[in-house]
Specification:
single chain, mainly alpha
Length: about 625
């Protein structure tokens, strides 16, 4: 028999496990999807990064001290022996190695911090879900409620009857800043909502209980709201994800039926899954009916040149890629001539290739890419084994729904960028972690590694998580100062710009989210005050941080021209035009340099490259003056 001390310790362990699960769900599911900050370049990215890293830091600290306060508590971390964690660590390591290729190290450090936090989230989520089997159903219930709230917000935004004060564009976007991101978040929540529905209607509860009925109704309401929001959001990537994942799940269900691996109530399970699949097909069909009325969007025109130039970048980079966080720095070097005019003229900038796989391959290199892909190959293989070996109805429903979610995530990632979004990464990581925890429980590891002293690996993790949190916080403060400097710039308060940028610049934040170096803003302020030497120094530093930014190249050349260094001016103007051949401001400036050096024919050839329909009066004026000298 167990003595009172053992019983007390087990009760403490059970209470502690439930408390940790509650905190984990409360922060990752109930809190993070709703937090945002107004007046930021990206209202959700940094604040949610900080919230997630802080959550993990608190949980690591609790788990560390829990080990020593509950003296007989044995923490099982043997799941990290699974191959999926080895390749996850490989992806992190190769991403770290890629830093040697970074042009802008501050962006690389932040991206590496995000990869570390994502990897750590997988470990912590697997631990939490594995310690308490009730965690996943509770998580599914919580997410069902969150989805209902977000969907109501999205519908109100779409019809302009509320919540349009939330930062974002292209209604409905709820708290995700854009309809495509909102739609993909809703898609990733479908496996959890459907599991909650099946769990409530599985027959395990007594028929007279009110709780299961309420959750069944809530799940059905969430499904209807998801369907409507996905339809009005018109995200084609999500529609394709629905089609492919539904087909994949239906095939898996059919193969299971053929192998007769389902339990006695397989007919009921088949019917429920078939109804779910048909319902999802209806969502896709409704979306397809709308496609003929949807105008071609900018991203539709962008994807192919983005992908083409990214493939060129991949072929030029070595095994380690261009460095994490540096795709946006390297991309302009491959030309902006095929881009829309707002990109070619530098009004907007390309931040990502709208394909997570090309993104990873270009930044982390072939080794990092293989590790990234293997993460999903392994999790799908775990799902398949669960489906084939387990005879439990819930395991099979669970496996089919997780297969649906993972396949859909991969499809969406092929056309979009869910990897960089905090809320999306949380959901897909929870899917992977739930698969791992269930797989680890069904198929225990027979031979375990020799245990490493707890403090030897937990303390470094706490230190790295603290550093990641600090990096996120410092970037948030710097972004706030940058926004203040931009307000001063719009008011032509050049001293305010200089002081604001001085406060913003830090080792972890040197370019703003539009890829513009902070020193460029300060250089413009000095230039506007006729402090050409100071402006040149700032533009040279900005050029080090982003050598392919056309405004940096243009302003750097202008400084050299003012200082009568015509050859340097021509060199940098030419570099800018190599990137953006129709960049009108640089064409005018280069034409002026040739004119000032009495190279009238070249000046005429350059000014002729401007758009004939240009409304810029300088184009006509320069053209007339040059033509007079050529007569």
């Amino acid at each position: 028999m167990k003595d009172s001390a053992q019983l007390k310790n087990e009760m403490n362990q059970h209470y502690s496990s439930r408390l940790i699960s509650f905190f984990f769900i409360a922060t990752t599911i109930l809190l993070i999807p709703f937090i945002y900050l107004q007046d930021k370049f990206d209202p959700v990215l940094l604040i949610r990064f900080i919230a997630l890293s802080t959550t993990l830091l608190i949980m690591l600290t609790v788990l560390f001290f829990q080990r020593y306060t509950l003296h007989q508590l044995v923490s099982d971390y043997s799941f990290v022996q699974r191959l999926i964690f080895i390749v996850s660590a490989g992806y992190l390591i190769f991403s770290a190695i890629s830093l040697i290729r970074c042009v802008n190290l501050s962006e690389g450090i932040f991206e590496l911090s995000w990869i570390f936090i994502s990897t750590l989230l997988l470990v912590v989520a697997t631990k939490v879900l594995g310690d308490n089997e009730d965690t996943f159903p509770s998580l599914a219930k919580s997410l069902t409620l969150v989805v209902i709230v977000l969907c109501v917000i999205g519908i109100c935004q779409y019809y302009y009857c509320g919540f349009n004060f939330l930062p974002g564009s292209c209604e409905p976007y709820a708290t995700m800043t854009h309809r495509n991101l909102f739609s993909s978040f809703l898609f990733l929540s479908i496996p959890f909502v459907l599991f909650n529905l099946f769990d409530a209607t599985s027959g395990n509860q007594k028929s007279r209980e009110v709780g299961p009925v309420i959750w069944a109704v809530a799940s059905l309401l969430a499904i209807v709201l998801i369907a409507y929001n996905v339809m009005i959001a018109t995200s084609r990537a999500v529609w394709v994800g629905l089609i492919v994942s539904t087909i994949a799940t239906s095939i898996a269900l059919w193969l299971l039926s053929c192998r007769r691996k389902l339990v006695k109530s397989h007919s009921s399970t088949n019917a429920k899954n078939l109804i779910a699949a048909i319902f999802l097909f209806l969502i896709v069909a409704a979306g397809a009916l709308l496609t003929s009325d949807i105008e071609i969007r900018t991203t539709d025109n962008l994807r192919f040149p983005l992908w083409s130039n990214t493939l060129s970048m991949i072929s030029d980079s070595n095994l380690f890629g261009v460095g994490v966080g540096n795709w946006k720095i390297a991309f302009p070097a491959y030309g902006l001539g095929d881009m829309p005019i707002e990109i070619e003229s530098g009004l907007t900038h390309c931040l990502r290739p709208h394909n997570d796989f090309l993104f990873v391959l270009a930044e982390s290199g072939i080794s990092g890419f293989l590790c990234y892909v293997l993460i999903f190959i392994f999790v799908i293989s775990y799902i398949i084994r669960i489906l084939l070996k387990s005879r439990d109805k819930h395991d099979q429903i669970f496996g089919l729904l997780m297969l649906f979610g993972i396949v859909g995530y991969l499809v969406i990632g092929f056309f979009s960028y869910p990897k960089e979004r905090i809320a999306h990464t949380i959901l897909v990581t929870l899917m992977i972690a739930s698969v791992l925890s269930r797989y680890h429980r069904l198929f225990p590891i027979k031979k375990r590694w020799k245990s490493i002293p707890y403090s030897l690996w937990m303390i470094p993790l706490i230190a790295l998580t603290s550093m990641s949190t600090w990096i996120g916080y410092s970037r948030l403060i710097a972004e706030t100062q940058t926004k203040k400097a931009l307000i001063a710039r719009s008011n032509q308060d050049w001293e305010g710009v200089i002081s604001g940028i001085d406060l913003a610049i830090s080792p972890f934040y040197q370019i703003d989210p539009t890829t513009t170096p902070l020193q460029w803003y300060r250089g413009v302020a000095h230039f506007s005050k006729d402090n050409i030497d100071e402006a040149l120094a700032d533009f040279l530093k900005a050029h080090e941080l982003h050598p392919n930014h056309i405004h940096v190249l243009n302003n750097l050349a202008s400084c050299y021209e003012i200082l009568s260094d015509h050859s340097k001016a021509i060199e940098f103007y030419t570099r800018a035009l190599d990137i953006s051949p129709r960049f009108e401001e640089t064409l005018i400036n280069l034409s002026a340099v040739y004119y000032n050096t009495k190279q009238y024919k070249r000046a005429y050839e350059v000014i002729q490259r401007c758009d004939p329909k240009s409304e810029n009066p300088r184009v006509t004026a320069y053209l007339n003056v040059i033509e007079e000298h050529l007569r």
